Amino acid sequence: MQNITIYCASSPAVPQKYFDAAAAATRILVEAGYGILYGGGATGLMGCVADTVLACRGHIKGIIPGFMIDVEWEHKGVKDMVHVSTMHARKELLIKDTSAVLALPGGNGTLEELYEVLSLKKLGRFPHPIVLLNTDGYYDPLVTMAEKMAAENFMRREHLDLWRVIEKPEDLIQALADQQPWGPESIGFAAVMDKDAKE
Ligand code: AMP
Question: Which residues' Cβ are closer than 6 Å to ligand 1?
Answer without folding.
Answer: 9-11, 39, 41, 43, 46, 68, 73, 106-110
